[in-house]
């Protein structure tokens, strides 16, 4: 069986974005069950020199649906600012990313294979092909920020386990 760019990107992105959706829902339920203001979690950090939950969730979105859009456009950069999102805003961003990923077709994503694109920062650029970018840059970043989202909520008492992080696995029927 051949594996396509769609298979290794969008289906993997959907698994992680889906797990983040679940993690945020469980974090909210934990907050509500324990009289914790969920808005306090939006700015929660693992440690003082790491960015807060809001940035982690924004980065999950950025390294999933925005990464595909970046490949289409031929350029990808850092995520834009989102101001002061609420916990509900974070959940909506993830739901919108999931819907955007679900709307992609295999043909449109597979057509990106071999396309030149660049990761652009203010002072430098890194050239990629779409598949190189998605597999060696966005997918590792997606996992990092999804894991950090999990860790922040877990550190704040949400009853999360590995199964929550794994999400919907592609098991044999």
Number of strands: 3
Give me the CATH fold name: Four Helix Bundle (Hemerythrin (Met), subunit A)
CATH architectural category: Up-down Bundle
Count of domain modules: 1
Terminal-residue CA separation: 16 Å
Give me the strand/helix succession: HHHHHEHHEEHH
Helix content: 55-70%
Mean of residue pLDDT values? 95
Radius of gyration from the alpha-carbon trace, in angstroms: 16 Å
Main sheet? 3 strands, mixed
Shape: globular
Description of the structure:
This protein is mainly alpha-helical. It has one domain: dinb family like domain (Four Helix Bundle (Hemerythrin (Met), subunit A), Up-down Bundle). Helices cover 61% and strands 7% of the residues. The longest helix has 26 residues, at 130-155. The chain starts with a helix and ends in a 7-residue tail after the last helix.
């Amino acid at each position: 069986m051949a594996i396509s760019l769609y298979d290794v990107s969008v289906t993997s992105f959907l698994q992680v974005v889906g797990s983040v959706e679940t993690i945020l829902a469980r974090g909210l339920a934990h907050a509500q069950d324990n009289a914790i203001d969920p808005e306090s979690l939006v700015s929660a950090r693992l440690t003082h020199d790491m960015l807060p939950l809001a940035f982690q969730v924004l980065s999950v979105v950025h390294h999933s649906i925005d990464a595909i859009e970046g490949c289409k456009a031929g350029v990808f950069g850092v995520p834009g600012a989102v101001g002061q999102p609420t916990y509900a805003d974070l959940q909506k961003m993830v739901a919108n990313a999931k819907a955007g990923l679900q709307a992609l077709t295999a043909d449109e994503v597979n057509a990106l294979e071999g396309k030149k694109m660049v990761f652009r920062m203010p002072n430098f650029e890194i050239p990629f092909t779409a598949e190189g970018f998605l597999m060696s840059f966005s997918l590792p970043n997606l996992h990092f920020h999804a894991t950090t989202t999990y860790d922040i909520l877990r550190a704040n008492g949400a009853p999360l386990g590995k199964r929550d992080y794994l999400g919907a696995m592609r098991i044999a029927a």
